[in-house]
Amino acid sequence: MLIKKQITFLLNDELLTIETPPVLVALDYLRKNKHLTGTKEGCKEGDCGACTVMVGELISGEVKYKPVTSCLLPMGELHGKHLVSIEGLNMNQPSPVQTAMVDCGGTQCGYCTPGFVVAMTAGLMDEEIPLNKKGADYAISGNLCRCTGYRSIKEAGIQAIDHLAPKLKNKPRIPTLCDIGALPNSFQNVSEKLAKIPPLQDSTLPDTPSLPFVAGGTDLLVQRGEELADDSPSLINNTPIAPIVEKGEYLVVDARTSFEDFANDPLIQKAVPDILSYNDLIASWPIRNRATLGGNICNASPIADMTSLLLALEAELEIESPETNRLLPLKNFFIGYKQLAKEGHEQISNIHLPKPKTNTFINWEKVSKRKILDIATINSAAKIVIGNEAINEVHLSIGGVAATPLYLTKTSQSLAGKTLSTETVLEAVDLAQSEFNPISDVRGSAQYKRLLSRQLLIAHFTKLFPETISEEAINASL
Amino acid sequence: MRHCDSELHVSGRSEYVDDVAPPANLLHAAIFGSPVAHGIIRSLDTSKALEVPGVIAAFTFDDIPGEGYIGQIVADEPLFADKKVVFHNQPIAMIIANSHEAARKGTLACSTKIEELPAITCPREAFKQGEILQELRVFEKGDVDSIWDSCDHVITGKVDLGGQEHMYLETNRCRAVPMEDGQIKVFSSTQSPSATQKTIASVLGIPMNKVEVDVKRLGGGFGGKEDQATQWACMAALAARSLNKPVQIVLNRVDDMQMTGKRHPYKQDFKIGLTKEGKILAFEVDHYQNSGAFMDLSNPVLERTCLHSTNSYAIENVRIRAVPCRTNLPSNTAYRGFGGPQGMFPLEAAIAEAAKELCVERDWLQSQNIAQGGYTFHYGQNLEDNRLKQTWDQAVADFDLEGLRSRTKEYNDTHTMSKKGFALMPVCFGISFTKTFLNQGSSLVHVYTDGTVNVTTGGIEMGQGISSNMIAICSRIFGINHERIRCNSTNTSRIANISPSAASATSDLNGNATIIACREILSGMKKVVAKELKCDASEISIKDGQVYCGENATELDWNTLVLKSYFSRVQLMAHGFYAPPNISFDPIKGWGRPFHYYTYGTCLVEATVDCLRGTYSIDAAKVVHDLGRGIIPTVDLGQVEGGLAQGIGWVTLEELKYADDGRLLSFALSNYKCPDGDFLPDDLEVKFLENVDNPGGPLGSKAVGEPPFMYGIAAYFAIRNAIDSFSSTNEDEIKCPMTPEQTLHLLYPNFEYD
Known about the structure:
The structure holds 2 protein chains of 2 kinds. Chain A is α+β, with helices and mostly antiparallel strands. Chain A has 18 helices and 18 strands.
């Protein structure tokens, strides 16, 4: 049943209070309700970036902006937030980003262009994104262009950064960008405006949450967006998301933590040293700003990227309902294709990650057709604890070869106590093949998945222990 | 000067069909497509759709007042399925509602009972079963059959060449508005406004002069909206006229991918014969084109495949056989290169195989056989200059091929699980529609009394910069600043009988027409002031808006000149018409001079393969391109880079997968991957031949839209070149694209798990 929701939010420089279906996506709201047509629909599944907007959220007195794809952004989540479309970036004169795109020939048919401009601008506004080529590329990781070949767009990103970096040095970015005419002045006092919006008094919500639970919606709204638009599912991202904390031997992660926040958390970076390099291979910046760990797990896709990592990290799920609160190892959570060991109304509240012991080595591998913003053909993670003489523990996971994300129980167990050697690895990868039976689909043939899974399992060892296990030696023995 | 729409684009203010403020009472259409790829419709029920709140009407084949079948070459395609369905998601019914969402719900409420028949998706299979759209065509030169014995090496092979989704960011869309007296005005995202106008008239059973088609711009076309934007416009027009309300249809991405055709996949057999010195003596190729369900543009696409089957190489004995095969897929259609890339690929594959057998470098074999001035192609046209070879030589020198070769060898000698490779690709692409009659362009130039100018041509702005080129041409001919000139939408009421914006020829045809129109206006203006300045009109010129008499600036500026002309009752608007001379082609004999000229270039691509994971990166792509004298540097460069990018995508990531029952499995951007900024190399360099003219193109320019696409083929062979340093491959059928899957299989050809 559709129950409209009243929200107050800032749209560009306009404070609005509206009644909205909770899962009306911002793209449709902007284009159809507000006739702000600079935001374009390219795919309506977060895969092209033509509809990229920014969402500003008040966090500890400061507004932090993130680019997101408006096609998967429920309006019901925007209470107290700042929604910025391309129109909200326009000034009397083109901004340095807009000028650079014109100068470099970064726009041809123009349909993808507003999305690029929003994403590039968001990159300049985010203190965490470096003002260099890497940062410029990071900002546009979710945007597709079919006309240019990207050279001109990438050059535009560099040109804008070269122009702005000296002026932004050691200064807070957003106010400085406003001062130098790179952002409209309306960005100056947004925190005051948002602070004045009273919290949502949500008397319209029913006592029992209606299903499904929508967190980031980056998969759910792709699969069921049209259907959910007429409904009032629970938007569980509406309350603040708890920071990641240490609790004894565990790190406790709010299940609604976004991929991006997870990878950028210092505790996680300490536990999983290469997390940022894995992050680059998962979705895109705008999608990672929305996609949540809990959503990735509950969506139960056999090739869920974060899930494959969490499986090898021995994650445990804290599952809550009004009646119960229980812990379940993630590896016991998947009981069949998209079938979960939880009742519908139960919600994963937290994810518990055991802190790695000394001499723990972690690696995550993914191969997809395209490196960035693509679904894995195979992904796999390994956590290996090395003892004095031999391997103490191994936890291997693999995705894309079965109906569920897979924890390789037999193979993992078989390696414990063994000496690390080429033979050990080859035996293990052979054994692993007996634990799954891939099928042919759009991401690859069964034979390919067999071969690729072998290669990626080998890659864990050659990457983590290049001195002991060389790619050459393995290759010679294959 | 930059692309004239740039500032609108970067601020999101440029308008596409559905960005324009909607007229009152705008209705929305959605399509109910066939659930199966092949079958006989036993029943169809749209009554439940009409019960969905907001749904107003449903249309099927029986509701078409005029001709129900459409098609530019053969009218063989029903607008809605007629008694049978021949591809998955073929439109069966259209639901009209007061919102897009309601119309979509209406389609979900439609039902049909279909007696399913076996689906064919492979062109070889279709050919075996006699499912062909046209008889086999043969092009021959020399005497292939008697030459094989004199060859030192004869190599045969098979190719499985994939298609390609256009993936214009803007899906197909149209808005149709009924006007007084049964007229209809149509805003369509089409490359072919006149074909759209003509087909709407035919479908509605009304004369063409009651249909006005207007096209402001496209969010990308690439050929995908040459013939396949028409049907959606016809549907919107049908509903608009029948309900007497404006109707809009905007396909969602999945519908667009499932319901429209793509670049034709081909199956091919080749046979190449060479001397031991590396001279190609004979080449034979059979093309089985996967045409899809209807003719669409398959015939001319296949024709260009045949014309470009020897690409840039001089071969004295050639036989090309080609047949369009009917399969249960949406009709495959025009796509940048228009069959040319599919023509060129098998010979490049044959050369790669031959290089292996002769134990020589592939690029050496290519260079030994590059066609030079005076060579006559198998369809009778001569190569009139040596600029093709010039681009090759310059690429080899400027990009330090020998240095690259030794660096690559050194890398591969010192790396076991990572290998580098490179490949060159020469391109010789003929410019003109091979249907000679289409080679005509029109332009309408208006000079207003305030000195500003409007130009309208038959060219469609789809990002390629045709509007900018037309403005630049007006600016140069008139001698005034480009900021005083605007380019209008393309409109069938202002320009009649417009050829599609296709074949790379749009700027040539419409640009030359614009020059003619500008000159006509200018000649009248000059006569007016010649009197006053007491000189001959031929001595008068305009530079930077100032009137010159010989070398001397006069007191007169452009605005004064315009006003004087107006008050002297001299025409300030003109229509220019241009048809390139000296082209003719007999499609039956396959002989003549089909092309106005050729565009040439050579591309070098470098790649690195991760031999553990089967992934690869494209490290560099470098091009020497013959552009003639370019019109606007950023626009021209954008065309070369963009074409190259699409070509690289075609041979690497972009994989159309069909289930055996004919369903498209790669039906969304989540499972069909085109290149992104990370995939395409930062090291992308384009050099233009310097100081070269082209008498055939406006202002000495050359057509640039399609030829660069084929540079991308180098990426395929660069990856293969790297793989060859790791494993020896000898597959039964050479498969393209070189996806990571294909790469890993070639790296580990002996892997088998049972």
